[in-house]
């Protein structure tokens, strides 16, 4: 297919553009609200066309799909425009600023008959898929709890609106908590029911939270403890899944690279778990293209995007109010 990039973003430049080209896709045009940014992105990355008029780009019949990686508040309108034009959509997380908007996007894609996916890259990782397989196969028995720690130091070139613009969807909760929500759902197959949380602005964020800790309850009774931050340069990241018959420790795996170690611990001892080290974004693109062709589903579809957003918004509300919040999926999960 021929693709349009909606948003001249860092993630498009560093990860998705190469994944699309690696899958034999033609990235034909890049759109940005700023003409100079679109022009520079196109020149730097060898894209033939660029522009600021999204409707004009979407009117081109040869464009079959769009990848949306603009700031968060733009996703809803841009996705609806692409869907209305009959384009398949791969959208960055969080899908929208509200669960209602996300549900509207997913419903519109279903009505139009186009493929709609959320770019939750972590579930495309060989390490995460290996952990999921261990859980599903019963190697650790009944799941009792998960621990997700995704506290990092946000690099300077990624800060900008993420740390000072709530209107654009800034803050660590929409940026990272959505990832952990998706990971928990991916590993357990369960949608969190309720959450309690605390958040703070500990030095980086201006007007938005830059650190949050929360505990989520799953329908099975299992609990999830999550920690996300922009301000922890040496904390490391990882996940743990603890069950009645064993535990899984995965260190350094909450990343865009296929790295880290996975260890299974049972009564038999410690076992290093091998996993494939494919490119995460290449896997996401491959799964998306297969879904477009009618084979299976995207790695993370629209419902997955709704669910991760719903959990993140519940975490933010719980932290803001100091009260337990039920997760409201708006009928979409």
TrEMBL record:
Coiled-coil stretches noted in the UniProt entry, renumbered to this chain: none
Gfo/Idh/MocA-like oxidoreductase N-terminal domain span: 1-120
Keyword Secreted assigned: no
Keywords annotated in UniProt: Oxidoreductase
Cleaved signal peptide residues: none
A molecular function GO annotation: nucleotide binding
UniProt domain GFO/IDH/MocA-like oxidoreductase: residue ranges: 128-248
InterPro entries membership: Gfo/Idh/MocA-like_OxRdtase_N, Gfo/Idh/MocA_oxidrdct_glycsds, GFO_IDH_MocA-like_dom, NAD(P)-bd_dom_sf
Protein name, entry field: Gfo/Idh/MocA family oxidoreductase
Organism per entry: Tabrizicola piscis
